[in-house]
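INFO batch 0412 | record 1 of 1 | parsing
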Amino acid sequence: VTLSPIAVDALRALAWSAVLAAGLAACVGLARCGLARTHVRDLLHVGAGIWVLDFGGWRAMWIPAALTTIVAATTAALPLAARHTRVLRAFRDSVSDDDERWTGLSLYTLSFAIFTALALRGDRVAPAVALASLALGDGVGGAVGRRFGRHFFRVPLGKQKSLEGSITVAVFAAIAAAVASTCLGAPVSAATAMMVGAVAAIVEAIAPRTSDNVLIPVAVYAAITWG
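INFO prediction complete | emitting tokens
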């Protein structure tokens, strides 16, 4: 049986929905096992980046764009729904605390919706790199900064950052740019990857609280598209 392109995309969307459900269940399970919420968030932050590695597999980008829009809208509404549903409340409490409010995750999923939709314009590499640099650079950089940070700084309205964390953001955002673009068959140059790393690190360092989840991909996308 030969499936139509739309049918193939529909099956792909179902598979990704299953991956998402498994990821959310894993977050709840890890939190219940005693893993600190900040580490659960880091795993979710980084793990979501695998989404962009499949950008080249979709026949019609409106399907993944619709899927991420639904996820973003659901994420924004989840705190209200969690008041009445134990399962949703368990997930909310597994990744949200006083250090990182739910707003951060809402903005994170909003970025995935926006930049997946931007791939509808035909260029899938720039949106993929923008999201990959956010997922891997910011995700790993934040974890390293909290664990190994020794040289700290702070800009007005921003959270305390560390030099060690910022360097990690730069390195892993550059790696993310190289991996994502290569998976899409259009590898960026080393210079472009390093530019992505520098942009991501600077924006992450100066962004007001939680806004880095939007500002990093915006800045990286602009740098690749117009740089």
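INFO post-check: The two ends are 46 Å apart (CA to CA).
INFO record closed
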